């Protein structure tokens, strides 16, 4: 950029003074600005008559182009700077561009003195700020771009703004601009007007100025207010950016205003009707509704019925038959689901919903499909200490209690008889639809052998028994599959028996006599000694009477021992 040289003791002449001085002389002087008339336009230069003995030449590229064509023609008037009195062709070398710049510098200087604004286009990013074209290059510091720091200055390139000149040095070609100064002045003017009408309850228009995780700042006109995320909508808002973008225009209500601190709290939802006021009539108990899944927790899913009104589907209300461990196994956020209103609490703003209620309850039809006494087939789905669970339908299991596994076998644990996944048959014993329970029995598939055992084994009968277990008080012997009796220690031999293991071992087969039988308690008393007595010709009835103090006394003692076992 060329600067006009001046004496240090006198002020630098302006563009107009230079031009006027050039007209007052008969000859041109290098560095002078003169007014000329275009004579002709050539391929790379323009001839200009400046009123002296020689014509002047200006480079063609110093003139503006319009649609690829030079925008000047013969006869146009133009201000130019004399760069050289004469070139090799005897022409004066002129510059329109340098004359224009000198003229712009004067205009900028005048604007600076009058505290006026200048207009320019941001052309590039430079160290510490931006470069602005206001006719000449000027510097816009990053701190002077806006009221708040802007992270991405590149987005401003190409934008046209007005600026205030805050530093001007023509000799050094240094111009510093500020856009922030104009914005602050504008904000202060707006602020005065805004404060006059700002009060709690007022509804005002504003512009979204900044967005944070907890809310958005709204420019009400020179003063900012905070629109908190909880006051944006009656519905659920995860982040303010879901509703707003920078620069959006909004209408808000002033909730609180601290005039001393100039703090303003704003609300958007407060200028809209609370949807809960009509929820009672909109969502009565028993009505079917549709909504969007907006949140999942361990205990259920929240469904947005309308913006601001949500209902909870508890995991226990998602399926009649499936045990839902987590709602994510059934649905995802964003899904649209159908449910039934189970309950509504307007005071606490709660609605209970159920998904399973929109389908028939399969438990209510089980009595028809599986009446008591029906035989079902299913796989063993689970084994516990107290029984086995058998699958009847998808999600519906029946329990065979350990006591209903066998009429005769003493089952310590169901795993002794069944494995998970095994297919079994069972009889339906009871259905409790209200508590969603089905009782099954496997032993009921067969007749209870104890209905015939008293007749099959009358007292005094001799049978073969296989020793299955030995205890301190006697030994158990199996007289038919699943049917056992107790040989009391006193009925093992004629002599006194301290330890049954000295006389018997598991697996031995012995002839035994039925000396007592109790069908109600499913107990049988056996005797090896009675068989020996009978073989010796002793009447067993007389033996029982003399040895046991009577059949009843011995039976009672044996019965007590069996019960203790």
Q: How would you characterize this protein structure?
A:
This protein is an alpha+beta fold and 565 residues long. It folds into six domains: 15-102, Nucleic acid-binding proteins (OB fold (Dihydrolipoamide Acetyltransferase, E2P), Beta Barrel), CATH 2.40.50; 115-183, OB fold (Dihydrolipoamide Acetyltransferase, E2P); 198-271, Nucleic acid-binding proteins (OB fold (Dihydrolipoamide Acetyltransferase, E2P)), CATH 2.40.50.140; 275-358, Beta Barrel (OB fold (Dihydrolipoamide Acetyltransferase, E2P)); 362-445, OB fold (Dihydrolipoamide Acetyltransferase, E2P), CATH 2.40.50; 450-564, Beta Barrel (OB fold (Dihydrolipoamide Acetyltransferase, E2P)), CATH 2.40.50.140. Helix content is 15%, strand content 38%. The chain contains nine helices and 32 strands. The strands form seven sheets. Strands 1-2-3-7-6 form a five-stranded mixed β-barrel. Strand 19 and strand 20 form a beta hairpin. The protein is rod-shaped. The N and C termini lie far apart (118 Å). The model is unreliable at 1-10 and 547-565 (pLDDT under 50).
């Amino acid at each position: 950029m060329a600067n006009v040289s001046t004496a240090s003791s006198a002020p630098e002449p302006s563009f107009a003074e230079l031009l006027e001085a050039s007209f007052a002389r008969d000859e041109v002087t290098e560095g002078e600005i003169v007014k000329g008339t275009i004579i002709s336009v050539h391929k790379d230069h323009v001839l200009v008559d400046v009123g002296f003995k020689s014509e002047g030449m200006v480079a063609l590229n110093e003139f503006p182009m319009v649609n690829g064509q030079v925008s000047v023609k013969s006869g146009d008037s133009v201000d130019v700077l004399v760069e050289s009195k004469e070139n090799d062709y005897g022409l004066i070398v002129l510059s329109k561009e340098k004359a224009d710049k000198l003229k712009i510098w004067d205009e900028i200087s005048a604007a600076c003195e009058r505290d006026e604004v200048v207009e320019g286009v941001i052309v590039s990013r430079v160290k510490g700020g931006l470069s602005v074209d206001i006719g000449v290059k000027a510097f816009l510091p990053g701190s002077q771009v806006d009221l708040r720091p802007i992270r991405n200055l590149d987005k401003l390139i190409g934008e046209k703004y007005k600026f205030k000149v805050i530093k001007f040095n023509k000799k050094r070609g240094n111009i510093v601009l500020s856009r922030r100064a104009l914005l602050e002045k504008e904000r202060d003017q707006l602020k005065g007007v805004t404060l006059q009408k700002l009060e709690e309850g007022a509804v005002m228009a504003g512009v979204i100025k900044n967005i944070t995780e907890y809310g958005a700042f709204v420019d009400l006109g020179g003063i900012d207010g905070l629109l908190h995320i909880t006051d944006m909508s009656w519905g659920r808002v995860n982040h303010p950016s879901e509703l707003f973008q920078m620069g959006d225009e909004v209408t808000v209500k002033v909730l609180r205003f601290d005039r001393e601190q100039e703090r303003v709290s704003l609300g958007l939802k407060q200028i809209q009707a609370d949807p809960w006021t009509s929820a009672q009539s909109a969502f009565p108990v028993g009505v079917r509704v549709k909504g969007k899944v907006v949140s999942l927790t361990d205990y259920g899913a929240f469904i947005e019925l309308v913006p601001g009104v949500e209902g909870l589907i508890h995991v226990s209300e998602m399926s009649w038959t499936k045990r839902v461990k987590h709602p994510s196994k059934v649905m995802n956020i964003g899904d649209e689901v159908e449910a039934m209103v189970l309950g509504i609490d307007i005071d606490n703003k709660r609605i209970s919903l159920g998904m399973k209620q929109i389908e028939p309850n399969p438990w209510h039809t089980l009595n028809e499909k599986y009446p008591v006494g029906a035989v079902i087939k299913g796989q063993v789905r689970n084994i516990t200490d107290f029984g086995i669970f058998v699958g009847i339908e998808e999600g519906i299991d029946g329990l065979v209690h350990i006591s209903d596994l066998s009429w005769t076998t003493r089952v310590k644990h169901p795993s002794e008889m069944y494995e998970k996944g095994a297919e079994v048959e069972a009889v339906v014993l009871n259905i409790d639809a209200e508590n969603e329970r089905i009782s099954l029995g496997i032993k009921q598939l067969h007749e209870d052998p104890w209905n015939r055992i008293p007749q099959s084994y009358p007292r005094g009968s001799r049978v073969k028994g296989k020793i299955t277990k030995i205890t301190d008080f006697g030994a158990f012997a199996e007289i038919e599959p699943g049917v056992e009796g107790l040989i009391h220690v006193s009925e093992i031999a004629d002599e006194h028996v301290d330890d049954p293991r000295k006389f018997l071992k598991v697996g031995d087969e012995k002839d035994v006599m039925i000396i007592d039988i109790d069908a109600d308690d499913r107990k049988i008393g056996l005797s090896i000694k009675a068989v020996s007595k009978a073989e010796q010709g002793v009447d067993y009835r007389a033996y029982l009477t003399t040895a046991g103090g009577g059949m009843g006394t011995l039976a009672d003692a044996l019965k007590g021992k069996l019960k203790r076992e």
